[in-house]
Design brief:
There is one protein chain. The protein has about 280 residues and is α/β, with parallel strands linked by helices. The chain has two domains: about 5-200, Alpha-Beta Complex (2-enoyl-CoA Hydratase, Chain A, domain 1), CATH 3.90.226.10; about 205-279. The protein is built from twelve helices and ten strands. The strands form two sheets. A six-stranded mixed β-sheet has the order 1-2-3-5-7-10, with helices on both faces. A four-stranded mixed β-sheet has the order 4-6-8-9. A hairpin with a 2-residue loop joins strand 1 and strand 2 (about 15-20). The two termini are about 25 Å apart. The mean pLDDT is about 95.
């Protein structure tokens, strides 16, 4: 499927999704919101994909919402205004809970919604010189649609409030310092750094990756006894869905000293991959 505002490539276990409105610095308009939902549908239906990388074309990741198309133009029609922006909230929520690993490859300007997508992805790597910002305060509102949630769940309180209240920008290097991204690297190394991270993830069991995300999200607001009960239930789920691969394959290989878990990943049998795809 081709999209008006996105470019999607699926290569084996990796999907790459690019915001593609470079003439608008990849600002998110209503068409892009619709396209994102369709693209996520397509990626989720791909049985082999383990990682989704999100990036932008041109010199921007995303400048955030298209202020004219999302706000000014539909404003006089309350129902249209509501529908236009509700679509965005749906795909933001889907991205946060997406069943495969998501990586933001932040190649350029990331403001508002672009800042939010960075915060919603599981992992993020940025070029050192990119600019992040929450400029909403500069046109009279606060970061909404989940943007405030994204900054408060990725950055310390004082830094989060500073950028929310001032509209100041921060660099990729500062974003790394404050926890918004995992790493900031020279722009020329960005793709290679993301490729390296993808390479580490695609060798893992896809069911384990999904359940590891679910356990993390599910236990963040639990006390320790409830968290242990929850993760034990998920371990039983993992065992059932993978035929105890962690015991029957991974630890059997460790028993033969064919790999060291602290340094490498066990070799997964193709038969297990085929069985999981057909499940």
């Amino acid at each position: 499927m081709e999209f008006e505002t996105l470019l999607l490539e699926v290569e084996g276990p990796r999907a790459t999704l690019r915001f593609n409105r470079p003439e608008k610095k990849n600002a998110m308009n209503p068409r892009m919101h619709l396209d994102m939902n369709l693209a996520l549908d397509q990626i989720e239906a791909e049985p082999d994909v383990k990682v989704l990388v999100i990036t932008g074309t041109g010199n921007s990741f995303s400048a955030g919402m298209d202020l004219e198309e999302c706000f000014l133009q539909p404003y006089e029609d309350p129902q249209l205004f509501y529908r236009t922006n509700l679509v965005a909230l749906k795909w933001f929520q889907r991205l946060k809970a997406f069943p495969i690993v998501t990586i933001a490859q932040v190649n350029g300007y990331a403001f508002g919604g672009g800042f939010e997508v960075t915060g919603l992805c599981d992992l993020a790597i940025a070029a050192e010189n990119v600019k992040f910002g929450l400029s909403e305060i500069n046109f009279g509102i606060f970061p909404a649609g989940g943007a405030t949630w994204a900054v408060t769940h990725n950055m310390p309180r004082k830094q989060a409030l500073h950028y929310i209240l001032t509209g100041d920008t921060l660099t990729g290097r500062e974003a790394e310092q404050y926890g918004l991204v995992n790493r900031a690297v020279p722009a020329e190394d960005l793709e290679a750094e993301v490729d390296k991270l993808v390479g580490k993830i695609i060798n893992k069991n896809p069911v384990t990756l999904r359940l590891a995300k679910e356990v993390y999200e599910g236990t963040t607001m639990m006390d320790l006894p409830r968290a242990i009960d929850y993760d034990q239930a998920k371990l039983w789920e993992l065992a059932r869905l993978t035929s105890d691969e962690w015991i029957n394959v991974a630890l059997k290989q460790f028993e033969k000293r064919s790999y060291q878990p602290g340094l490498a990943t066990y070799k997964r049998p193709e038969a297990a991959d085929d069985a999981q795809r057909s499940a």
